[in-house]
Write a structure and sequence with these properties.
245 residues, alpha/beta, 7 strands
């Protein structure tokens, strides 16, 4: 399907899954509103987008800043009339620390970005989606939120919260033709690698490799499309048949 004329917000769009998701929607004509803290990387993404993309806006800021999120989304709605798709992808995750050694300040950082960032964006877009009787929200969770990863307790907890948040919110807005789903990637190729089709060997999945950024983007795109019109409140793992850790 085409997303021509549709407006898509993607957070954490400068690298990795966010970058690949921006490319996927751009290939299909969407108007893109790309959020990230890294202005340089965000501008690089904009330059790489195909000519098939619609209008593009890059917004630099912190998703854990409620006032910033609210005002930025309102500007998007004022300019484009509505938000058709929200992809909550921004998160912090690089951690490997035992629970007893993880300070409360780091817990608060992970909660503010990984949970509240998604909450703020959903709160900002939903009134317009309800008014227009339709919309799609895709939250990027993680298999860590399903199984729980040792030495990543705070990350696992925030991603588990996103999965529960997704399931509960989907029930509240279903009558407004708004579908809310989550995707839970397993091992993904390093975001520092610019090739969104890159993968490498991995012992964490029975397929024996990592997932590519574009493979994850393809699932996000599907859930945002009309082809997924009867799917809501789900958490779909995309993990190469992961070996539980």
């Amino acid at each position: 399907m085409t997303f021509c004329g549709k407006t898509v917000i993607i957070t954490g769009a400068a690298v990795g899954i966010g970058y690949a998701t921006a490319m996927k929607f751009a290939m299909n004509g969407a108007n893109l509103i790309l959020f990230d803290l890294n202005e340089e990387k965000l501008n690089e993404v904009k330059k790489k987008l195909p000519i098939s993309v619609g209008e593009v806006r890059c917004v630099v800021g912190d998703v854990s800043d409620e006032a910033f999120v609210k005002s930025s989304v309102q500007e998007v709605i004022s300019e484009f009339g509505s938000v058709d798709v929200l992809v909550n992808n921004a998160a912090v995750w690089r951690c490997w620390r035992s629970f007893v050694e993880t300070p409360s300040a780091e817990w608060k950082k992970y909660i503010d970005i990984n949970i509240m960032g998604s909450v703020y964006f959903c709160q900002a877009v939903l009134p317009s989606m309800i008014e227009h009787n339709g919309g799609r929200i895709v939250n990027v969770a993680s298999v860590a939120g399903v199984y729980g990863n040792a030495n990543m307790v705070h990350y696992s907890a925030t991603k588990g919260a996103i999965i529960a948040f997704t399931k509960a919110l989907a029930k509240e807005v279903a009558a407004n033709n708004i579908l809310v789903n989550a995707v839970s990637p397993g091992s993904v190729s390093p975001s520092k690698i610019d090739d969104y089709n890159y993968y490498c060997e991995s012992e964490l999945s029975y397929l024996g490799r990592t997932g590519t950024d574009m493979e994850n983007a393809n699932l996000i795109y599907f859930l945002a499309s009309d082809e997924a019109s009867y799917i809501s409140g789900q958490n779909i793992q995309i993990d190469g048949c992961r070996k539980k850790q």
